[in-house]
Structure prediction request, 225 residues.
Amino acid sequence: EAGVAQSPRYKIIEKRQSVAFWCNPISGHATLYWYQQILGQGPKLLIQFQNNGVVDDSQLPKDRFSAERLKGVDSTLKIQPAKLEDSAVYLCASSLNRGDEKLFFGSGTQLSVL
Amino acid sequence: DAKTTQPPSMDCAEGRAANLPCNHSTISGNEYVYWYRQIHSQGPQYIIHGLKNNETNEMASLIITEDRKSSTLILPHATLRDTAVYYCIVRQTGANSKLTFGKGITLSVRP
Prediction:
């Protein structure tokens, strides 16, 4: 089966610019996650969707980050305006349902903010 | 979720067993032990999970001590492709459970 697709693979922007990342989960997966992984650390959950609804965005910096999953399938994560500390890999993952044992991750988008 | 403690790194020879330790002394009765790994430039990949019994699948074996305060992930015949960061995670069951990653252990398999 096709895995989790993410684009772009790499993105370089200057601080204060905006950027968007796209994720297409595995077909039929109701739950979608966005993680942020700073170099040398483990991934940190930013936001979790169940179909098109947000179930957890407690660690999302809402003053600059936003995410949507309007039709309950693919999702977009946006940063506006970007800061230097937003440089990281942004990983998308999906699972069949909430609490499922296995999360399937994409390869991520590596963001560099200069 | 309870925290886990892993050494920062270890290495092993190709073809030998790799035994990756993890301490989770504050684990609760309804919390499972999960292992994921992350190969360079890829997203994390599920390996195995267990509650209290030992588990084995095509990728690895998971040995959980009787008091459940520690566990060991065993890769029986490590290959160069097993070089990765391995994350030991304790996670509750249920719809509200989260997968919270620590720093993991970097396994280097040498030829």
